[in-house]
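[Discussion] Sanity-checking designs against the backbone

I'm trying to build intuition for which residues belong where. Below is a structure token string of 202 positions. I'd appreciate it if someone posts a full sequence so I can compare it with mine line by line.
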């Protein structure tokens, strides 16, 4: 390196300090140069956090194409899903603290309305379409507008909720579900506030 003159050295130091301390004006830098000791400040660059990409699920069209919710014909057997019904009964007993005889009906009714019904045995007791009345079976799938029910005859029935009344019995307690007031997905029902007043509307 070639030795620099005093003026060049001063210019270099002044430029270096200007870059190192961008918030200082020239007079302040000049004043600091008259001192024997000089403390340089460091201004780190702000790091921008990378945005997290949201994981996208399947669209309704992709789910249909992949047949995610279809039950294969060889699996459409009532006996296969009886263990599921036994699990559901234990789940409801735990949810309702044992379904004791002195339990208040409206409390049990409220819990059943918000409970998961997959595995429950239901019966269509009233319907505007007579062909649905009497259908009894285990609920295999619940969607916003329909129940998929497997009957004792190993037939998979798709029953709409609208215009149908379903009965559900467990340990001697019978609950009625008015399908027209039940148009929710199973995952949405837990946060729904239901009115427990009776209604005759189908």
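Best answer:
Here's mine. Compare freely.
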């Amino acid at each position: 390196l070639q030795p620099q003159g005093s003026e060049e050295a001063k210019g270099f130091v002044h430029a270096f300090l200007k870059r190192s301390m961008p918030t200082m004006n020239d007079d302040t830098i000049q004043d600091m140069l008259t001192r024997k000791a000089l403390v340089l400040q460091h201004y780190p660059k702000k790091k921008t956090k990378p945005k997290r990409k949201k994981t996208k699920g399947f669209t309704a069209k992709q789910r249909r194409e992949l047949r995610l919710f279809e039950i294969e014909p060889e699996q459409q057997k009532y006996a296969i899903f009886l263990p599921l019904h036994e699990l559901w009964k234990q789940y409801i007993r735990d949810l309702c603290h044992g379904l004791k005889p002195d339990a208040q009906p409206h409390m049990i009714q409220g819990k059943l309305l918000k409970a998961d019904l997959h595995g429950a045995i239901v019966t269509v007791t009233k319907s505007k379409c007579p062909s649905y009345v009497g259908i009894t079976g285990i609920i295999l799938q619940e969607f916003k507008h329909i129940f998929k029910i497997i009957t004792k005859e190993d037939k998979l029935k798709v029953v709409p909720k609208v215009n149908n009344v379903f009965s559900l019995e467990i340990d001697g307690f019978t609950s009625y579900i008015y399908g027209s007031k039940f148009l929710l997905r199973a995952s949405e029902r837990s946060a729904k506030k239901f009115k427990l007043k009776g209604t005759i509307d189908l």
